[in-house]
Amino acid sequence: MSEQLSNPETQKQEIVEQDQAERTRDSRVYVPRVDIYESDEAIHVIADIPGADENSIDITLDKNVLTIDAEVQVEKPEDYSLTYAEYGIGSFRRKFSISNEIDQEKIVAEVKDGVLKMVLPKSQKVTQKISVKATKE
Amino acid sequence: MLYRRKSSPSLWEEMDKLQREMNRMFDSANTNRLGDRPINSYDFPAMNVWTKADSGQVITAEVPGMNVDDLDIKVVGETLTISGSRPAPEEDEKNRYHRQERGYGSFTRTIQLPFPIDVDKVEANYEKGVLKIWLPRAESDKPRKITVKAI
């Protein structure tokens, strides 16, 4: 059978708060699955956040910590009751620490069909590199 | 004794969730013996089923980042088949991957419905990466009310 996903694990992973701080809102929080790749000009972050739209996504960058926070509203079909469930509905949240070389002013984010795409351009400032020389004895 | 009014969203809900996840895990473990899919793979996409007695079901599935044209929904008798594919990311030698967690490729999933449905009235929409399929129960299958006459 060739009908195979390259990444077949579909179970949503629920977040485990590491700093012991609980959220005030009583809802589930999931970890969005992401692809992150780096090109010469920028770092691209792509995240799956089904159910969230441009109004419910909150992206913050504070002290080099990029936080993606996407609120998902539970949309129940009216008069229907949930009889079988394989996935839970809740918000998405994930944090990444970003290196200094990002031009924080020029970050672009867009969302379409539940996929968030972010481009974090590298800053043009030439960072000073210290070359290491091998000393010969 | 200290009475906690609400320790979690709902204890029963939590239990239900756990049970469903366990069932799903074992179910897919069984079906895997037949196919050549890797162990621990779940059926994709995960589905939630909403039911309204007598009028039908609504099935929702999270399939972010799809083209609507690539989604294929078929209803034959009492089975529903959802298939589609998510395009692979464009490969560029200049791109260096730090993480790759999102899946791509094609998928097919067939489920058995509990009743025949009115195929002409099936509706599906795809919004914010969530697929929603409305499956109205066939008129001929709806339970009829039988009036009891007093003699």
Written overview of the protein:
The complex is a heterodimer of chains A (137) and B (151). Chain A has strands spanning 13-14, 29-31, 34-38, 42-48, 57-62, 65-70, 81-85, 91-97, 108-112, 115-121. Chain A is mainly β. Chain A has a domain at 27-121: Immunoglobulin-like, CATH 2.60.40.790. In chain A, strands 1-2-8-6-5 form a 5-stranded mixed sheet, with no helix packed on it. The radius of gyration of chain A is 20 Å and the shape is elongated. Chain A starts with 12 loop residues before the first strand and ends in a 16-residue tail after the last strand. The model of chain A has no long low-confidence stretch (mean pLDDT 81). With 151 residues, chain B is an alpha+beta fold. Chain B has 2 domains: 9-42; 44-87 and 105-141, Immunoglobulin-like. Chain B is built from 1 helix and 8 strands. Chain B has one helix at residues 11-34; strands at 47-52, 56-62, 72-76, 79-86, 96-100, 105-112, 123-127, 130-136. In chain B, strands 1-2-8-7 form a 4-stranded antiparallel sheet, with no helix packed on it. In chain B, strands 3-4-6 form a 3-stranded antiparallel sheet, with no helix packed on it. In chain B, strand 1 and strand 2 (56-62) form a beta hairpin. The model of chain B is unreliable at 29-41 (pLDDT under 50). At the A-B interface, strand 3, strand 4 and strand 7 of A face helix 1, strand 1, strand 2, strand 5 and strand 6 of B.
